[in-house]
């Protein structure tokens, strides 16, 4: 691989027992920051998302390659296959933990404890270890034994109740937002625990739940309810506290438009030669516009249909009012700002030749993130890790393979 400046987490080793999305997204973020992430997968099958396609990459021999879903959350990791149902497999896992700094897992609540790897035992194996468990509902409470699925958590955590058109069906997000948020929150907690360990030498137990993360993401919507006691409704692409703040129909297409405060509203009304909207008591303040939402939206749609979206967005840029095109993914990656920020990267891959990835959003110019490893093929680094970290010779590794341990 290309030589890169050591990342901020250089020297930190992550033992990654996660699969699907929340856990892998967490460990990918840590890997992007320079940590050595050892992804432990079941022999023969590996992470479920290796099979979640199409689309798949194409191998040089024409065979099916890697699932795009897997590629999205598993760069900067080394893959080691290990059968944790065998005694020798558990011995290898314990050996790796002894040389690790962080253990991340997303099995059902209590699984590692049943394997004899509860937090207290892990601290004896590796004093100062940071152990992050990611589950659907956390390690206590009446739902602790339930399996966690993003869709169920979006429903249970209130997200769907406020998502979708006011007069239509409730919707989930178009991405697995609870999974992704939990991964980000978990990486944040792990970084805090690593910082604390530098001062105290102590490990930490981190209990991350998809439901907790989803409720936290409700943010000001939840706060609106807690303060007022009134159930929030659905406003489509509108905002519960700001009007106008949604999509509007121009002559040729829809675009996103917002006036985040009364000053912006005044500038917009002046720019479109409607100064009377500034003084009209129905529209003069955001509170008034909220009360007259349907009227404001209707009159703006009438206005915007007179010109193309590009014209309106150019006017908004001139007067300093936010607007944006509603892009599909092709338009996203063709966007000049997205390209300037190098949001897409192409990295060499052992079977696909090269794979396109979404780059890390963590822009740290003094110590940049980098892709040291492409998303690995299943078990790609098994022999390398067993030799370098545990001192196994090739003969022993071949025996472990024949016995179904790796």
Descriptive account of the structure:
It is a single chain. The longest helix is centred in the middle third of the chain and has 24 residues, at 177-200. The model has no long low-confidence stretch (mean pLDDT 95). 36% of the residues are buried. The two termini are 25 Å apart. The protein has 2 domains: 13-217 and 342-402, Crotonobetainyl-coa:carnitine coa-transferase, domain 1 (Rossmann fold, 3-Layer(aba) Sandwich); 245-332, formyl-coa transferase, domain 3 (2-Layer Sandwich), CATH 3.30.1540. It is elongated, with a radius of gyration of 25 Å. The protein has 18 helices and 13 strands. A hairpin with a 5-residue loop joins strand 3 (56-58) and strand 4. A 6-stranded parallel β-sheet has the order 5-2-1-6-7-8, sandwiched between helices. A 3-stranded antiparallel β-sheet has the order 9-10-11, covered by helices on one side. A two-stranded antiparallel ribbon has the order 3-4. By secondary structure, the protein is of the alpha/beta class.
* Count of beta strands: 13
Name of the CATH class of the largest domain: Alpha Beta
Return the structural class. alpha/beta
Count of helical stretches: 18
Query: Terminal Cα separation, in Å?
Result: 25 Å
User: What kind of sheet is the major sheet?
Assistant: 6 strands, parallel
Globally, the shape reads elongated
Helix content: 25-40%
- Please tell me how large the radius of gyration is: 25 Å
- Give me the CATH superfamily of the largest domain: Crotonobetainyl-coa:carnitine coa-transferase, domain 1
CATH topology of the largest domain: Rossmann fold
Mean pLDDT: 95
- Please report which band the strand proportion falls in: under 5%, 5-15%, 15-25%, 25-35%, 35-45% or over 45%: 15-25%
Low-confidence parts: none
